[in-house]
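Lab notebook: predicted structure, single chain.

Context: the supervisor wants predicted structures on file for every construct in the current expression panel, including those that have not yet been purified. This is the next one on the list. No modifications to the sequence; it matches the entry in the shared construct table.
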Amino acid sequence: MYEYKTRIRYSELDESGRIRLLSLLNYLQDTSCFHGQSCGMSTEHYARIHRAWLLNYWDIHIDALPAEGEEIIAGTAPHDSKGLFAFRNFWLRKPYAAADTSDSGSSTSVSIGSGSSDSSNTPDNNYYLRADSSWFLVNTDTMMPIRHTAEDIEPYGELRDHLGLSIRTRKVRIPDASKLQPAGGCAVTRYMIDSNHHVNNIRYIGAAYDALIDSGLVTADYYPSHIRAEYRHAAVYGDTLCFSSCTEGGNITVLVSAPDGREFCAIEFS
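Prediction complete. Output recorded below exactly as produced.
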């Protein structure tokens, strides 16, 4: 388990003074990177051994939005490993006394000692965000999945489910093509590319969310409370992202694809 304290910055807000969805979700992947750096499993370590963890699925529950200047605790913990997949919890929460060990306004890791409180006993109304995720390891020379070993898992600490989120399926169902309506598109810019040389997983969600607003399919004040995202193929610099959507039963499903039909990502907002 790993946690650190930080504050919501003005640069993370939109024109209404609300934290941008992209800014909120960036905390998740940053937290997992910090966890890796703290235990010797950084992205630099994996680059040296020609491996990388890639995301397969997000299940994100947004319970509340932190305000500008508000202190938050970002945390993560691995909780399971099955076959090719490893599973990891994420959370953003309000500070509470037992874990509030760093100076106000600092952005340092919070030490969780034996017998102290942790996120598993945090009241539900103290969470801003709770998420589960599945990941797989690839050989970066071949970009083929490889089976992870104890050496890839054990440095992160005890496998423990802190959130108890129930994932029924990692598949995001795409409605019949006749029900999908165009929702615009965008070119993949260098700003969207991460160190794995493809579009960062959070960028798909942010771009799809913006496309829904820009195309008028949702109003500008729309903010999802639940996001599921399934990743299928990686888009790279020079690709074009095409968005098509369908609304059913209060859920908005967005398919992110290429002009030639390759499917990059399927996202469900509700």
